[in-house]
Design the sequence.
């Protein structure tokens, strides 16, 4: 499987993202070469490609799977770009990150893969598993006393949760109240450019 070994901060700078979006602490900003990327005039294709790379990077999805999400998004009713965002937001690893049970999506993907979480009481170890409205995602009972999750809880103390998740800190679970909306994202994205790129 392909692995992107580019430093997180470098990728964030290139894509115009704050590391906080990915769950990483913002390091002290440097004034050196601050406008490096803004000096170049980016073509329409370049803008479309950058938006696609941004989404893939945020959610940790590789090209083949991402294109699969695009195909599904265009077949569903509604706006294709918003459908694409909804598909990415309802991935199990993203839900685990959103409910504060992982400090980053990468960590959430690893924890899900190790079988620490259940959906409606059934163990699920597939990070790309799609959750639905009324599903309950919970940390397995055996994992609740793990020092690892106590550390994560301390690190995420004070985190705000999206309105589409009803998080219960006591049981370390979350109910998907409804599907996420486009305007609830915590980062800027022009998803219509991604749709335009693929539809050429």
Sequence:
């Amino acid at each position: 499987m392909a692995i992107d070994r580019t430093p997180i901060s470098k990728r964030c700078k290139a894509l115009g993202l704050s590391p906080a979006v990915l769950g990483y602490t913002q390091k002290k900003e440097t004034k050196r070469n601050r406008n490096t990327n803004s000096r170049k005039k980016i073509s329409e294709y370049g803008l479309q490609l950058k938006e696609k790379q941004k989404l893939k990077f945020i959610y940790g999805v590789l090209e083949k799977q991402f294109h699969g999400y695009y195909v599904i998004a265009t077949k569903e009713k509604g706006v294709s770009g918003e459908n694409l965002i909804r598909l990415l937001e309802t991935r199990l690893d993203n839900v685990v990150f959103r409910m504060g049970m992982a400090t980053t999506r990468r960590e959430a993907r690893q924890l899900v893969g190790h079988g620490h979480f259940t959906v409606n009481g059934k163990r699920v170890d597939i990070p790309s598993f799609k959750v639905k409205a009324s599903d309950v995602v919970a940390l397995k009972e055996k994992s609740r006393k793990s020092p690892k999750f106590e550390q994560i809880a301390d690190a995420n103390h004070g985190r705000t949760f999206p309105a589409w998740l009803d998080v219960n800190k006591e049981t370390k679970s979350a109910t998907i109240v409804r599907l996420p909306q486009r305007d609830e994202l915590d980062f800027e994205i022009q998803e219509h450019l991604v749709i335009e790129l693929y539809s050429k």
In short: The radius of gyration is 18 Å. The first helix runs from residue 8 to 15.
